[in-house]
Amino acid sequence: MLNNLTDTEEGDGGAQSQGDSNPKESSPFINSSDAATEKTQQYDRKNMALFEEEMDTSPMVSSLLSSLANYSNLPQGSKEHEEAENNEADLERVTAPQLGTLMGVYMPCIQNIFGVILFLRMTWLVGIGGVIGTFIIVFMCCTTVSVVHSSGGSYYMISRSLGPEFGGAVGICFYLGTTYAGAMYILGAIELLLIYIVPKAAIFPLEGLEGAEAEAALLNNMRVYGTILLTSMATVVFVGVKYVNKLALVFLACVILSILAVYAGVIKTAMDPPVFPVCVLGNRTLVWKSFDVCAKTIETANGTVTTQLWQMFCDSPFLNATCDKYFVANNVTEIQGIPGVTSGILAGWFIRDLISRDKMESVEDQDDPLTNANRYVLADITSFFTLLVGIYFPSVTGIMAGSNRSGDLRDAQKSIPIGTIAAITTTSTVYMSSVVLFGACIEGVVLRDKFGEGVHGNLVIGTLAWPSPWVIVIGSFFSTCGAGLQSLTGAPRLMQAIAKDGIVPALRIFGHGKANGEPTWSLLLTACICESGILIASLDAVAPILSMFFLMCYMFVNLACALQTLLRTPNWRPRFKFYHWTLSFLGMSLCLTLMFLCSWYYAIVAMVIAGSIYKYIEFKEWGDGIRGLSLSAARYALMRLEEGPPHTKNWRPQLLVLVSTDAEQNVEQPRLLSLTNQLKAGKGLTIVGTALGGTFLNNYEQAQRAEQALRKLMETEKVKGFCQVTVSSNLRDATSHLLQASGLGGLKHNAVLVSWPRNWKQGDEHQHWRNFIELVRETTVANLALLVPKNISAFPSNGERFTEGHIDVWWIVHDGGMLMLLPFLLRQHKVWRKCKMRIFTVAQMDDNSIQMKKDLTTFLYHLRIDAMIEVVEMHDSDISAYTYEKTLVMEQRSQMLKQINLTKTEREREVQLIHDNTTPASPATPATPLTPGEGAQSPGEQVQMTWTEKCDGEPAKPPGAATPEGIKDIFNMKPNHSNVRRMHTALRLNEVIVKKSSEAKLVLLNMPGPPRNRTGDENYMEFLEVLTEGLNRVLLVRGGGREVITIYS
Per the database record, which ranges form the SLC12A transporter C-terminal domain (predicted)? Predict the structure, then answer.
């Protein structure tokens, strides 16, 4: 019999019934295929009968927890996360991410941050900028990247936070920066190869060339060998990324061993400084290449003999030869290039930085041109502070290596901030200590020697290494090759993500690749752009270019973080506990400052490129831009808001608050606006509305007074929003008009806040609770969320503070995640800030409560919500006599109220109906006409079961109150079995809720839906009353048919 009842309810009260609508959007949770197969018959024997009518749209939490916990956190990059294709073949290829913090974030960041600049330019930077100046540069750059925080990749974060216009523009700039970084690493590897490892391999020989000719020959060698190395690396990447990943550990080991060798060499200099003599003429360092002794003459047994050095500056080996004027006027001095860390030269560095650039003196002849320039160690570029900043900054651009690998991480939320901050801390420590140690161990003339020409062609940092300079040379070469491979691997994937998003139609071809997803066309484009950087051929010229692109990317990442915080986007919940928006603002300011410090013209060019891409994407009208700011903009923003619903991560409750007024037009529930303030905190849309009965012409002044009262109360409660008063012939229609017509365009409400009807059991209040139930049905049809605070007068005002306590969430059915989001929003307000969050869910007989708790813990961790979790087991139990009795009293009261409210005409009609039921049917006469609205049932009512029907399918005959038999039938009636089951659910749930949450400051609870027809409305109110009995503050919540919370920021 119960199965027949359920079948009838499902068959005839389906999607066409009022109050039963499908969700607005498809999601992994709501209305999923797994949930759809959970028929309500499966709940007949369980304790959830109160929720069974909506199990198709709001399934039990226990049936979905596994899906929630395993909701994939792999970033798609090319589309919204919720729009991932359900292709089984693709799903089979997705393997569970296994990388942890160390190997997934820390090591890749270390490898990308330590590289070409540390080994090839760090000593030169210290020599040119001085210890103090270089330390300031390092500290400033490290501070800039330290305040950048990203999870899920910078392109994805910016595009989804600031809109595709910003995301596309900055994403392309980030792509160009990564590509030019590959060119810089390749140029560094070639510099190591041609200058320090195999100098004779130069295709364009440098011997005998001076000045511009020598520089041109070096650049041509760099171009040829750079192109060859780029082709080789691109081939390796094309063949397969797995080979790059296998080589990554080898290259990383080279980096670590090289750094350890430098520190070991520093320690050794304290005990036994290495012998690296430097020959100085006056204050000019000589290229120690074509001479063996650092002296003009030497004394032998045969007398004074000139040296090879003499012959370099004089026209003959004899003492009376004609020599270079500078050579004659200045003495030749041999100094120890690495005096050691205990030599005390660090103090001399500070003196020279503050007072004088150099302690060595020379005699200059202004009329004598510089001759034999190839004999001196000369500066190849004019250096200044901002140039040094631009050259150094690429060495700290590897901080995104971890966030760009978020799809491979076991726990991206935990690993990315910890690994990135640990890597930044480690590398910053190494860089800043290197500045001090280089200044303490190596003479300034050696540090300023960029290519080691004064120390027999050795790499300057290699002269300090132990046990051999070759450790640094070989290690640096492999580390630069590894970093170049990483850039050629990451940049094409970034371009592929941008191309697949379709924001720039011209780039769509680069979204295609091999069958396994490898970005072939993007790799070809990356190689071509990288070749343009190699053709520049100068590492010092390429470094400022990529600095611009990276700085612009970091600037907008910081801007995205700051805006998300200031707009209080509900799904922006950074797990990093020390985060504050001022850090992001500071980082943005530093990035902008560094851009113009490095090169103002490069900065302008980069901004023009980004601005052009932004305007192009905006012209194509691809996306919705900065939706949070659009809410406070004018017509343009309103038009943009209508383009589509907000992404789940940007969803926030836009409230329509329905209040009632008394005869004097004063608001009867002022605490409703206090709760609104606590939920909204001045963000988003709030519309406070009230309904008046009558005609607009006769009640205009009354409507104006009501509007003024609403405005005054909104100012008092600090609710930022709009107020609206609607007048109609009756309150029910006026409320419905408010629900339908409030808002403008895309600036519309998505949730309704209304108070529980007071004194609804009183006979003269029956129309109020009927209006309330109709409102519940209308919000369901309109896909609006519904919040119903019960005992609203007990809710705190904005001036109160809870110093302790709990906000308890009873999560019984999943209808979009509203129950997860609301406590988080409340706890942002100072009233609820000290309250802790507890989440309870119900396990049935055949549910695994231990696994449910694990899954719920995982889900909340992905949501970045801190809450205590408890799974309450509710086993099947027999329905008690008390439940039968309470149900019977409820139904008797319902019938008696119906009779009390009958008018005289209705009483006479009821008597006639009873008479007709006991006599043979006869044709209707003119004296007793029956209309479809009077006495006759509509087809739906004839078939559809109600909450007050008997289990055998026969309609309960309304007892005639005018007769003793009718009164006798009321007291002899039997309770409806479906109502007994629902009452059993309400009593059992209330029992466990009161037991666990009686001391809670607030209880949030799923609100069951109303009956599918109106015959059992009064029973519905009684069930809700029983469900919340004994609780001080209750917030009943119904979702709007879409997901409102996501694991993504």
Answer: 670-786, 801-1049
Sign of the CA dihedral with 1018 first, then 1021, 1026, and 1032 last:
negative
CB-based burial, 898-931: b 16+ in 10 Å, e otherwise: bbeebeeeeeebbeeebeeeeeeeeeeeeeeeee
The terminus-to-terminus CA distance of the chain in angstroms comes to 50
**Residue 758 and residue 398: Cα distance in Å, rounded?**
62
Count of positions (residues) in the chain: 1049
Cα distances (angstroms) measured from residue 560 to each of 36, 155, 158, 397, 572: 38, 11, 6, 19, 11
Enter the DSSP assignment of 647.
Answer: P
18: burial class by Cβ within 10 Å (0-12, 13-18, 19+)?
middle
- The fraction of the chain above a pLDDT of 90, given in percent, is 9
Beta bridge partners of 99: 409
Alpha-carbon distances, residue 8 vs 41, 240, 438 (angstroms): 12, 60, 85
DSSP label at 974? P
Place of tokens 């709009």: 722
Query: Is the distance from CB of 39 to CB of 63 less than 8 angstroms?
Result: no
pLDDT > 50? residue 562: yes
d(CA 21, CA 412): 37
Which secondary-structure segment (H or E) carries 265? Answer: helix 241-271
Tokens of 225: 């060998």
Helices 1017-1027 + 977-997 axis angle, to 10? 30
Listed residue (623, 848, 796, 815) closest to 62, CA to CA:
848
> Rounded to whole angstroms, how far apart are CA atoms 275 and 456?
12
Gap between the Cα atoms of 461 and 447, Å rounded? 9
**Angle CA(263)–CA(268)–CA(272) in degrees, nearest 5?**
160
For residues 930 and 909, what is the distance between their CA atoms, to the nearest angstrom?
10
Residue 397 to residue 423: CA distance in whole angstroms: 12
Q: How far apart are CA 90 and CA 87, in angstroms?
A: 5
Angstrom distance (rounded) from CA 722 to CA 707: 10
> Can you say whether residue 825 is alpha, beta or left, with left for phi > 0 and alpha for psi between -120 and 50 degrees?
alpha
In what helix (H) or strand (E) does residue 227 lie, and over which residues does it extend?
Answer: helix 211-239
What are the helix and strand counts (H, E) for the chain? 38, 15
Helices (H), 513-580: 520-536, 539-566
Host H or E run for residue 266: helix 241-271
CA distance 1006 to 822: 12
Per-residue pLDDT reduced to its tens digit, 146-181: 554 443 355 665 665 556 667 777 778 888 888 998
Q: What is the CA radius of gyration of the chain?
A: 39
Question: What is the Cα–Cα distance from 513 to 237, expressed in whole angstroms?
Answer: 13
Q: How far apart are CA 480 and CA 1042, in angstroms?
A: 49
Q: How many angstroms separate the CA atoms of 874 and 877, rounded?
A: 9
pLDDT digits (tens, 9 = 90+) for 823-871: 888 988 889 989 999 999 888 777 788 888 888 888 888 777 888 989 8
Those residues with Cβ within 8 angstroms of residue 710's Cβ, 6 or more apart along the chain or in another chain: 659, 667, 688, 690, 723, 725
Pick left, alpha or beta for residue 548 (phi over 0 → left; psi -120 to 50 → alpha; otherwise beta).
Answer: alpha
Question: What is the CA 641 to chain-centroid distance, rounded?
Answer: 21
Tokens (6 digits) for 39: 């028929």
Task: Report residue 15's pLDDT band, with 50, 70 and 90 as the boundaries.
Answer: very low
DSSP 3-state of 400: helix
Q: Specify which residues 807 forms β-bridges with.
A: 837, 1002
